[in-house]
Specification:
single chain, Arc Repressor Mutant, subunit A, Tetracycline Repressor, domain 2, 9 helices
């Protein structure tokens, strides 16, 4: 999943905010490796010195970009988690978020997995954020089931987290597969199987 980018006239803001907005556009659509500092500076319409004033390096920008994406997505999941909806409705709403993310023309898969593939080294931000994000998604599922007093909350959460991730991958590789609908149905079937 990916936080939705709002296209339109670039807002005039700080160099940091403008660079993050450009990173949101380019890192996911073009890739981290394919997006150089020169292009980021050009698209953000800032001076090179402003880039290095805002971020020590491209990896620092990648770190801030992934943190922002993580925060946005997890906040959306927490809204669903804290809602008064029934357990099945909460799960449907989570898969609705995936449907929104995968409908974007630039969708290439889970942005954290894509970033981790581009930056597999453990000392770079992508791999760390991929794990942080996946653990937070798992935790959200677990909280949803624990709040519903589900007797197998931890196991069902693990299964749904795997379906969630598999849905994101399949939607990218085989968009014709109906991955979101099938993933949603599988998740609901898992819940039903524990009743």
């Amino acid at each position: 999943m990916r936080a939705q980018v709002h296209q339109g006239p670039r807002a005039r803001g700080s160099a940091r905010e403008r660079l993050l907005a450009v990173a949101e556009e380019l890192f996911f659509a073009e890739g981290i490796h394919n997006t150089g500092i020169t292009l980021l500076i050009e698209r953000a319409d800032i001076a090179k010195a402003s880039f290095y004033s805002a971020f020590k390096s491209k990896n620092d920008l990648v770190d801030a970009y992934l943190e922002r994406q993580h925060t946005t997505i997890i906040e959306r999941l927490h809204i669903i988690e804290r809602s008064d909806d029934s357990l099945p409705v909460k799960i449907v709403r989570i898969f609705d978020l995936l449907a929104t993310a995968t409908a974007q023309n630039s969708y290439r898969g889970c942005l954290f997995v894509v970033a981790a593939i581009e930056q597999p080294q453990s000392d770079l931000p992508a791999k760390r954020w991929a794990r942080v994000h996946k653990m937070a998604v798992l935790s959200t599922f677990r909280n949803i089931f624990e709040d519903a007093d589900h007797p197998h909350a931890a196991e069902v959460a693990e299964q749904l987290a795997i379906i969630y991730d598999g849905t994101l991958v399949t939607a990218a590789i085989r968009p014709e597969s109906g991955a979101i609908e099938r993933g949603r149905a599988m998740a609901l079937a898992v819940i039903d199987s524990y009743r």
